[in-house]
Structures
1.
Amino acid sequence: VTVKGTQADGTPILDKVLVNAVDGSVVARLPTIHTAKNRELHDLKNKTTLPGTTVRTEGQAATSDAVVNNNYDRLGTTYDAYKELFNRDSLDGSGGKLISSVHYSTKYNNAYWNGTQMVYGDGDGSTFSNLANSLDVTAHELTHGVTSNTSNLEYSGESGGLNEAMSDIFGNVVEYYGAGKVVSDNTWKVGEDVYTPNTAGDALRYMNDPAKDGDSLDYYPDYTSGVDVHYSSGIANLAFYLLSQGGKHPRSKTTVSVTAIGIEKAAQIFYRANTQIFTASTTFAQAKQWTGQAAQDLGYTQAEISAVADAWSAVGVT
Ligand SMILES: CCC(=O)Oc1c(C)cccc1C(=O)O
Ligand SMILES: [Ca+2]
Ligand SMILES: [Zn+2]
């Protein structure tokens, strides 16, 4: 890795090159790391009137608030992941501003997308530590922005469960990218780095075993319209996990065996479906059909296309 310059805020712009060990000649120039852009951070100082004081915009140096600096970096990683993996330029595909407000209210155990921007609470130190520090939470919130600019999945009913699942899925795809494209147990946990700081190993949600949180669904026949979208998301989260890693339903709700295609191909399929095929009223059955369509559009093999259908069958979407 060579430094080919520095950004306005002093951080180096790195160039990844493959060098011949014998004579030092450059063999190949790996894709340069895109620098994020259009980040705009606000400090709510524990009030709730959005957006709050502007404290750090794109290219500005780090501030004295580690939460601001961490969220700025998480937004940068999220921007870079969307650009590198899907060639998407920000929320709207054309460099739209990433507006984020931290220190919302007091001891607030939530983070949310309000239709225009991301908002993060500090947590109460028991249920959550500061949510703005988390990469998969930040990417979850930013993905609500991507979804609202594309499929615009209605935030209720089956489409609401899919909306939430898109955010959990791409929240962890970004975390996987940020970890150097390495899959670990954390890739399938949601919010693990800020959830219950005094309890190790747990998470807000579990994509590989949704029912582990005591509320989330892992089987479509159990779905009813009264289920919170953060729980019905488990149906699609588990389908994505099984498509990525292969295997069978963790609680034997079905016996379907899914062949793994890997997280990157699974992510390309779900990204294309969410941004180019899904409508605002997409159902789980349509998600099965349209993720299959996306796999076909991407030119994947028949076996890979079949694996998509199997993943949804495994969670009871026939
Ligand atoms: C993983 C991020 C997440 O789920 O954030 C929320 C929390 C913690 C509470 C209420 C809503 C949300 C959300 O963004 O959907
Ligand atoms: Ca995670
Ligand atoms: Zn959400």
2.
Amino acid sequence: MIVTLTVNPALDKTIELGEPLSHGAVQRATASHVQAAGKGVNVSRAIAAAGVPTLAVLPGASTDPLITALSSDKLAHRTLSITEPLRTNITLTDPDGTTTKINEPGPALTAQQLAELGGLVAEEAAGADWLVLAGSLPPSVPADFYAQLTAQLRTSLGGKCPKIAVDTSGAPLTELFAHSAQHIPDLIKPNAEELAELVGSFDEAALEGSIELATDCAKKLLETGIGAVLATLGAQGALLVTEQGVWHGSHTPITPRSTVGAGDSSLAGYLLADVAGASAPERLKNAVAYGAAATQLPGSTIPTESDLTVDAVTVDELTSTQGTES
Ligand SMILES: O=P(O)(O)OC[C@@]1(O)O[C@H](CO)[C@@H](O)[C@@H]1O
């Protein structure tokens, strides 16, 4: 079972433009579609599509369009009832696949609502394989929410605490490493920009362009005691850095259609391989295959196994500290 928590879910509205986006102009859309999303919801979608049990935990009224869409999509979910509407995020897609994304802040949550959400997660995640904490936090939520929740769950669930993966950015990401080891998750999935934010010394373009630089940054994070860093590097593929070794995975060149949800799909691919007992390089291979498949699909569409081209992924071992990882 893989449980996901999306504190700030979103209805993703994708608007396809017939001409490249022109700032300040009136432009006509050629098509538009809406999908219930947010990072954790997207991870759950990919996992459910692969036939593995998953549950998406999120705030939202039962009548909110996002929640009714999850029900009609038959995605297993549990909600904390709130009265404020959830947010809508807009993606504008140029004909060449370039995307412009505008994310709303989302509804505020009170301290009591956050405590209740944490309680729901503790109930649902006890005994699960993985808990994924994913996405931005709404404006009122303290930046250390993921760090504190990680520590609380480890204390309250003890041996029943699942492995915890976090995919977020900005202060909620840096806060993971600002407390004790108990607050540090088992896995993070930064992109190049987030890796740069974490190590604070390189920019995104430099990291995406240099596998060596990205490896050095991810290895620095291992010193904090984190189990694994899965870094997604856009067209450069992805890196998996663990105590046991470092692997780089890449896909043969693809024509991108929309990168929205590609990182979520990569994380889902990694977790699916992990719960199936795959080795580290196989987990990375599946992550890269899922990310590449998502990039070739429109808007926030999350891939199913039939969209994958696993044979087009190459994984190279860059260094190994303890022989072969199992
Ligand atoms: O604002 P956040 O929470 O950082 O990101 C939200 C979001 O951009 O992430 C998903 C793609 O990864 C989309 O479904 C969604 O709109």
